[in-house]
Design goal:
With 90 residues, this protein is α+β, with helices and mostly antiparallel strands. The chain has one domain (8-89). It has helices at 25-36, 43-54, 56-60, and strands at 8-13, 17-22, 69-75, 81-89.
Length: 90
């Protein structure tokens, strides 16, 4: 799904990135990945998020065809769970 118009995207990572506004999935994905890659994610989690967020326009766009918000969770060492929340504003 190519981005042809500017979108209203809000993204945050609990405990790591405050709610931030973006004009595109690509901008949001780049910012989210910059934060996530600095965290001690395991190999599988890091690979999945890298795939999802570095091609965010194509990977995230279809998730928003029938919903306004997507919640993704990840676990850090010692089982601490965190949530990535991405919202497409109308």
């Amino acid at each position: 799904m190519a981005e042809t118009a500017r979108l209203g995207i809000t993204a945050e990572i609990t405990g790591h990135m405050p709610k931030t506004h973006f004009d595109s999935f690509s901008e949001a994905g780049a910012s989210l990945w910059a934060v996530l890659r600095s965290l001690p994610l395991g190999h599988v989690q890091a690979s999945a998020y890298r795939h999802l967020l570095t091609d965010a326009a194509d990977q995230l766009g279809p998730l928003f065809q029938h919903r306004a918000t997507v919640h993704l969770t990840f676990e850090l060492d010692r089982g601490t769970r965190h949530t990535v929340t991405i919202t497409r504003r109308p």
